[in-house]
Design goal:
188 residues; 4-stranded antiparallel β-sheet; 5-stranded antiparallel β-sheet; Immunoglobulin-like; alpha+beta
Length: 188
């Protein structure tokens, strides 16, 4: 029985540690005009989900109601906390020139072309050092995404990227499975 409980504990630790060991993670932000520095008063909104898997960074962003016209640019800025402006780290190439829409793109963080050239220079001069700086900033909560347009060239809506923790339902499911393993071990 002790062996089965120990095995269940090892499995639980592995489930939680495995994604973190590779650096895999999900970050989200709600984009609002009130998050810009200075706040824009825009009624537009959006949501961005950034998924880090190995050296790949997948961005899924949806936005609606830009009041300053069609989007002119969008990107991840790094490396500053909420309320502080920072330089562009990853420009969103091919972002739709629209007032509402969606964007899906996966970036290879090992390629210099993924980054703004100034970001590379300011963070060690290589794609590898830029990748390290960006990943460290994402986990520290020091990166944000925003969308720019003609009326708001500094950004109409913005959101600070935050690490998404496992939802309570997932934790409950894991705990139920572990209790089932312990119960099965006791019956033997």
């Amino acid at each position: 029985m002790k062996r089965n409980i120990a095995l269940a504990f090892v499995v639980a630790v592995a489930l939680f540690a495995a994604p973190r060991a590779k650096g895999d993670a999900v970050f989200e932000a709600t984009l609002l005009g009130s998050n810009e520095v200075l706040p824009t008063g825009s009624t537009a909104s959006g949501i961005v989900t950034v998924t880090l898997i190995g050296d790949g960074l997948t961005v899924h962003e949806s936005f609606t109601g830009l009041t300053g016209g069609s989007a002119a640019a969008a990107h991840i800025h790094c490396c500053s906390g909420p309320g502080i402006n920072a330089e562009v780290a990853v420009p969103f190439t091919g972002f739709p020139a629209a007032t509402s829409g969606t964007y899906n793109q996966t970036f290879d963080l090992t390629l210099a072309g993924t980054y703004n050239a100034t970001f590379i220079t300011d963070n060690g001069g290589t794609a590898a050092s830029a990748e390290s700086a960006l990943i460290a900033a994402l986990f520290a909560g020091d990166a944000y995404a925003n969308i720019h347009d003609a009326v708001f060239p500094s950004g109409e809506i913005r959101g600070q990227l935050a690490l998404v923790t496992p939802e309570p339902g997932s934790l409950l499911l894991l705990a139920s499975g572990l209790l089932g393993l312990v119960g099965a071990a006791r019956r033997k």
